[in-house]
Design goal:
Blueprint: E1 14-18, H1 46-58, E2 63-67, H2 77-85, E3 91-96, H3 101-111, E4 115-119, H4 125-132, H5 137-150, E5 153-159, H6 169-179, E6 183-186, H7 205-214, E7 219-222, E8 231-235, E9 240-244, E10 257-260, E11 265-267, E12 276-277, H8 286-294, H9 309-312
Parallel strand pairs: 1-2, 1-10, 2-3, 3-4, 4-5, 5-6, 6-9
Antiparallel strand pairs: 7-8, 8-9, 10-11, 11-12
Helix pairs in contact: 1-2, 2-3, 3-5
């Protein structure tokens, strides 16, 4: 497979593929109070999307993670996963809130999906409701356990908020120890028009790590690939815990990701609004398009973006 190198010598390998901006939850850090989602007719059809991704894979991308909004609300999800499963990928995964995941797991496995990241910001029903507007985090956990038992590689992703769910960090560690499912804690990012009002909720990964060590937790660093978004630890009792410290410890210098929106807009950075529309572009023009997009990829962390998280893809 050819190497996709940007002007800074970073190899592009990973595609974050958004299927929709819609979601059943109303997480305050992701969506406005009254969201307006794109009409289905504006989204790439499977017949448009699959050749597009296939060409990007031919040119050097070898990992695809399906995102949203919430990808399981997309009616054509299984058709898209089946098509992606036929591509020569090293890894095919999906990030989901898991509300619809349990019933879909057998079909997703048959379609070729093997990796599932599950967003769960609290283990407590009342806190989960305050953050997401949803109920019954136990349903999310049940889907995670079923996916693990079926052979999926499963991780939990938890965005931490000062004064809201930071006191659950140890509870998540105990869950990881008990169920052998890694947990990753994410810093609240400066994304969306409400990011300024939310800064009081920010808590840095280093503060959480220091608090865990002060509480007597042993955190042994684990090795990871140079383009990893998370740095990971193992606890003495067997938990695996990662931290995605994109605000306090940016990983831009090793970033290997491109992003394709549900409407076919390719961009080089989560925080960057410019890019290139691939819709209608002849496949033979993709190499030049990729060079153009990769040339815009920043080396340093951009301060913020006014874009809505659900439009970008997680």
């Amino acid at each position: 497979m050819p190497l996709l190198l940007d002007p800074a010598g970073r190899r592009m390998r990973k595609l974050r593929l958004s299927l929709t901006d819609a979601c059943q939850l109303r997480c305050f850090y992701c969506l406005p109070h009254t969201p307006r989602f794109l009409p289905h007719r504006d989204l790439l059809t499977p017949a448009e999307l699959l050749p597009m991704v296939g060409r990007l894979v031919e040119l050097g991308l070898d990992q695809v993670r399906i995102t949203g909004g919430e990808p399981t609300v997309r009616p054509e999800l299984l058709d898209i996963v089946r098509g992606l499963g036929r591509l020569p990928l090293e890894r095919l995964g999906m990030t989901t809130n898991a509300l619809r995941l349990e019933a879909l797991l057998p079909a997703l496995w048959r379609a070729g999906l093997r990796n599932v990241n599950i967003s769960l910001d609290s283990l407590r029903e009342e806190v989960y409701a305050r953050i997401t507007g949803g109920r019954r985090p136990e349903d999310v956990l049940r889907a995670a356990l079923k996916a693990r038992d079926m052979g999926f590689e499963v991780k939990l992703n938890t965005v931490l908020f000062r004064g809201l769910n930071q006191d659950e960090v140890v509870d998540f560690l105990r869950f990881s120890e008990r169920e052998a499912i890694p947990v990753r804690f994410l810093e609240l990012m400066r994304i969306g028009p409400a990011h300024r009002e939310q800064r009081s909720l920010f808590i840095a990964a280093s503060e959480v790590i220091e608090a865990l060590r002060h509480a007597g937790e042993t955190l042994r660093p684990l090795p990871g690939p140079p383009d990893a978004t998370a740095f990971e630890y193992a606890t003495a009792a067997g938990a695996r815990v990662g931290f995605i410290a994109s605000e306090s410890q940016p990983f831009c210098a090793g970033c290997s990701r491109l992003r394709l929106s549900a409407t076919g807009f390719l961009r080089a950075c989560l925080m960057q609004e410019d890019g290139l529309a691939l819709g209608g572009l002849p496949l033979e023009d993709y190499p030049a398009a990729l060079r153009s997009v990769m040339a815009r990829k920043p080396l340093d962390r951009l301060p913020h973006t006014e874009q809505l998280m659900n439009r970008i893809g997680g």
